[in-house]
Design goal:
By secondary structure, this protein is an alpha/beta fold. It is built from nine helices and eleven strands. It folds into two domains: 121 residues, 3-Layer(aba) Sandwich (D-Maltodextrin-Binding Protein, domain 2), CATH 3.40.190.10; 89 residues, 3-Layer(aba) Sandwich (D-Maltodextrin-Binding Protein, domain 2), CATH 3.40.190.10. A six-stranded mixed sheet has the order 2-3-1-4-11-5. The protein binds adenosine-5'-triphosphate and 1-O-pyrophosphono-5-O-phosphono-alpha-D-ribofuranose. Adenosine-5'-triphosphate binds next to α1 and α3.
Length: 219
């Protein structure tokens, strides 16, 4: 059997992928929160997990550093998805991509008046496409985290960021004014690996598919 390498990011993607791996009979043998190791063995001698930054998952899979990976739709769109086969929506790490502004900013009238908006985001492709589709002029400011801070400091009028419970926005006195798209995580597969390692990859895809159809197991 060839070795199968799966790229995951620590945190919610790792945690929410574990039940799917279990459905495929794969158990990760070390806890990434306790170990400093970046390559984790599993109970299957030919399957290993590599831990990478969430934004690096598509790159690892595209270039064959990993055969498979789990990545958010947001990250996948920003990466471009080239060289990646995307067979499954895993229905995990669900949230939405939204536009948010300070509670006292009149977004609707700014849009109506055709004002140029300063928008801070990590997701410049998604933001550019969204505002272009609405014919809203924007100056995008690329950030790598803590987008919520940008309107509070005068860096931007609005942000484009992920929202789940809405608690982060609320805590920072921001309100959601547009929902751009629903987000969940996808399985991505290196196209060459899919052909060359089909016998090892196919059973994992099948088990994931069945587990998704059954829905999340009660915790
Ligand atoms: N609050 C949330 N609720 C549910 N899913 C989320 C939430 N925030 C992010 N996600 C999803 O989980 C993915 C991974 O998020 P995570 O916070 O682990 O990485 P990150 O900090 O965004 O990435 P990086 O470390 O590369 O900057 C995101 O790409 C998104 O699809
Ligand atoms: O609507 P909520 O439930 O509050 O979730 C939204 C927050 O979740 C994400 O951040 P995350 O918790 O992943 O932190 P990080 O990406 O900044 O590490 C996102 O960037 C928002 O800040």
């Amino acid at each position: 059997m060839p070795t199968i390498t799966l790229a995951l990011s620590k945190g919610r993607i790792f945690d929410e992928t574990l039940p799917l791996l279990a459905a495929a009979g794969i158990e990760v043998l070390e806890d990434p929160e306790k170990s400093r190791k970046l390559i984790l063995p599993t109970n299957q001698p030919n399957v290993r997990v590599v831990l990478v930054r969430a934004t690096d998952v598509p790159t690892y899979v595209e270039h064959g550093g990993a055969d498979l990976g789990v990545t958010g739709k947001d990250t996948l769109i920003e990466h471009g998805g080239q060289g990646l086969y995307q067979p499954l929506d895993l229905q995990i790490a669900k949230c939405r991509m939204s536009v948010a502004v300070p509670a006292d900013f009149d977004y609707a009238s700014a849009v109506r008046q055709g004002s140029r908006l300063k928008v801070a985001t990590k997701y410049t492709t998604i933001a550019r496409d969204f505002f272009a589709s609405k014919s809203v002029h924007v100056d995008l400011i690329k950030l790598y985290g803590s987008m919520e801070l940008a309107p509070l400091t005068g860096l931007a009028d609005a942000i484009v960021d992920l929202v789940s419970t809405g608690k982060t926005l609320k805590a920072n006195n921001l309100v959601e004014v547009e929902q751009i798209m629903d987000i969940s995580s996808r399985l991505v597969v290196n196209q060459a690996a899919l052909k060359l390692k089909q016998a090892a990859i196919r059973p994992i895809l099948d088990a994931f598919t069945q587990a998704i159809q059954k829905g999340p197991s009660p915790s």
